[in-house]
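Appendix B. Worked example

We walk through a single record from start to finish. Start with the input: the chain for Hydroxymethylglutaryl-CoA lyase, Nocardioides dubius, length 313.
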Amino acid sequence: MTTTPTAPEIEIVEVAPRDGLQNEKALLPTATKVELVRRSVAAGIRRIEVTAFARPDRVPQMADAAEVLAELRGTEGLTSIGLVLNRKGLERAVAAGCDEITSVVVASDGLAVKNQGVDTAAQIAAWHEIADDARAAGLKASVIIAAAFGCPFDGEVPTARVLDVARGVLDGGPDELAIADTIGVGVPAQVTEIVAGLRELDDTVALRAHFHNTRNTGYANAIAAIAAGVTVLDASTGGIGGCPFAPGATGNIATEDLLYLLERSGQPVRSDRREGIDADAVAATGIWIAEQLGLPQAPALLGRAGRFGGGRR
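Next comes the structure step. The output line below is what the pipeline stores for this chain.
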């Protein structure tokens, strides 16, 4: 293995407590969600998408958002991220004490209307309001362009469409701009093309990527994103989650598997601990959360196969 000292560090955003649990059928108690976050912090992960402030009748898995944040208040090392879809959600996130918020704009009208009841243009307008109010409240505000690689209703999503959406999103001044392969159809060539286009639009905004592994391309896409200049990657402990609109969805890319891939590739991962993020601890948590969800096993593989070679652990 050859380490590249000048390679930029990659930051991992843990999304299992939100995107992972939100898309699993089981409804877990608040205490289990809090334990999941605390285990992630103990393993060395700092930015964690803790919950979503959505309508409880539509997303019952996130109905206890405020309670989860209340239990986690004061957790040393944790930067809590809340997903919000509108100004009401933002108000709830601010009241609950979130450190950051992430909003969503869907690149395709088909999924935008199906998922949130309004088209893409309306979501861009809502994001602008959310961004302004979040800044006024002193919160970092990021935005994810969902379905950037394909839509379950509209089919192919051209890169030109993604970039048009990005122009509208960037006008809102996001602290971080993310692209999401919501249904797991993307391939590395798309990643390279989209990221290059985003860099032409704005060469300063921090770029983040969110990949699902429905067709086993998520990890290849993650490597392509890093090569293209993305410095923040979402991942879900255990690989839990997925998308309810993606038939046969197998989940998000797994945090532990991604950590193994990056470590063996000599890619630095951001950490405030000398020993870095503990991939073995994350893998153990992946096995544990799968048990809590009643899954036969976690989609992640590191917890099953174990580490190899002369790595740190």
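Two observations about the output. The chain has one domain: 13-305. Residues 142 and 176 are 5 Å apart (CA to CA).
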